[in-house]
Amino acid sequence: MSRKVLVVDDEAGIRAALSQLLEYEGYEVRQAANAVDALAEYARFGPDLVFMDVKMAGIDGLEALKRLREQDPRAVVVMISGHGTIQTAVEATQLGAYDFFEKPLDTDRILVTLRNALQHLELRDEVRTLREQVKSRFEIVGASYAIKALTDRIEKVAGTPARVLITGENGTGKELVARAIHNQSPRAKKPLVEVNCAAIPSELIESELFGHLKGSFTGAVSDRAGKFEQADGGTLFLDEIGDMSPSAQAKVLRVLQDGVVTRIGGSRTISVDVRVLAATNKNLEDEIAAGRFREDLYYRLNVVPLHVPPLRERREDIPLLVAHFVAQLTEREGVTPRAFEPDAVALLSRMEWPGNVRELRNTVERLLILANGSRVTVQDVERLVGRASAEPSALGALGTIRTFEEFKDAAERAFLLSKLREFDWNVSETARALDMPRSNLYKKIERYALVREA
Does 315 lie in the same domain as 303? Predict the structure, then answer.
């Protein structure tokens, strides 16, 4: 599709010559003899670029440029003038003009400016598309009560400077929660820097977080800023915080207390303004009891706790997630599009997902790639997923949990939630029935992010 250009000039000869040149180069061109017609034609034609004269009868070009930019802030306008001055050029630039030409027009310069402007447009469109794709990729999908309660808490905490501790099993989407908090916060235009504490060797984690000076250790060939410095003004997301080494924990605590970092091998302190979000799939209270995590750091991080529910606790979201992943994989990643039959989705909804949302996405991708026909059927799911649907058992969904610690947490959470519902969320009555101090019950409600259903 050819690009569209609008030529605005009160001299018919200029309009004709410029239009002829542009049409010869393959552009679709329309003309306007004054600013009023130009504004109307812009709305109808939707050009990619506008050439506009400065001196015109009635509304001049600068006023027209101002109105045009108010009508469409993304408009790309090149101003042309037979009596150009530095002051006029500066004023046009301040009003948002892409460039400024003097008459007589230079053909080569016009074509170079056109090429650069259209490359700018293509780059802008590509950036917008990529942003939309990133936003879609990291979107929290679901309509269940558990997800609505989670997104409601995200909205409440995002606008505050509070630190947040995000808990949940692997694959539940803790990173999505961190991104959502950052994107809805006043720091959204600043960087979100992510650190996976489990993926970085313990001997390198301090260098990664706090930076180092050249020669401070073997392999330190140049000065390097750490993640805290890189996130200055923005947000630092410490994923898998439960796997951080004790020495790094002590230094992170100091940053949270004092707001300064010191690079390895250096003595100068560097002030940083960073909001810290942390996530873990471990029970940090158990880690504290075992001497593997600092209690003072835990309380610094756990200002607002957010628990991301596992997929088995929100099965009603599985059809929405399947549709989301199908759109994502087919539209943006080039996987062959196939529709999922309702029975196939129902079967997926009954299955256990120990890998949670991440496992479901991988399964949807496998089905799209390997299914035989134009639609994904129940037979495809049975053949390719290789796992029977969830059947009632003595333990129910708890029977799929892999570790004893995770089982204890899940069982306690389910038990407390059941009892709170039984007593209509009267904490005093529930605590009395459980023979538990009310303060302890409040702590567990906070720990497991238990929320009364609407």
Answer: no
Element (H, E) at 454: none
Count Cβ atoms within 10 A of the Cβ of residue 96 and give its class: 0-12 exposed, 13-18 middle, 19 or more buried: middle
- At residue 392, the pLDDT reads 41
- For residues 63 and 137, what is the distance between their CA atoms, to the nearest angstrom? 42
Q: Which long-range contacts (CB under 8 A, 24 or more apart) does 115-120 make?
A: 117/49, 117/76, 117/78, 118/3, 118/48, 118/49, 120/76
- Please tell me whether residues 301 and 174 are part of one structural domain: yes
> Are 286 and 374 members of one domain?
no
CATH number of the domain bearing residue 435: 1.10.10
- The answer to whether residue 315 is domain-embedded is yes
pLDDT < 70 positions in the chain: 1, 84, 127-138, 386-402, 453-454
Answer with the one of 256, 274, 307 that is the final residue of a domain.
307
pLDDT at 138: 55
The SS3 assignment for 7 reads: strand
In terms of C-beta distances under 8 Å and separation of at least 24 residues, what long-range contacts does 113-119 make, across chains too? 113/78, 114/5, 114/22, 114/25, 114/27, 114/49, 117/49, 117/76, 117/78, 118/3, 118/48, 118/49
Would you call 326 exposed, middle or buried from its count of C-beta atoms within 10 A (0-12, 13-18, 19+)? buried
Supply 96's token pair: 């948002």
| Residue 22 sits in the same domain as residue 54 | yes
Cross-strand partners of 275: 235
Residue 6's φ and ψ, nearest 5 degrees, are -110, 125
Q: State whether 155 and 288 are in the same domain.
A: yes
Cα–Cα distance for residue pair 118/244, rounded to 1 Å: 48
Q: What amino acid is encoded at 28 in this protein?
A: E
pLDDT digits (tens, 9 = 90+) for 380-411: 999 998 654 444 444 555 555 667 777 888 88
Domain that holds residue 84: 4-133
CATH code: domain of residue 340: 1.10.8.60
CA gap 153, 327 in Å, rounded: 27
Number of domains in the chain: 4
- The amino acid present at 447, given as its one-letter code, is R
Q: Which residues contact 152 (CB under 8 A, 6 or more apart)?
A: none
Our CA angle for 122, 123, 126, nearest 5°, is 85
What pLDDT is attached to residue 388?
Answer: 46
Residues 368 and 440 in one domain: no
Please give the pLDDT value at position 170: 92
pLDDT of amino acid 136: 47
189 and 213 part of one domain = yes
> Is the torsion defined by CA of 382, 388, 390, 392 positive or negative?
positive
Secondary structure letter of residue 265 according to DSSP: T
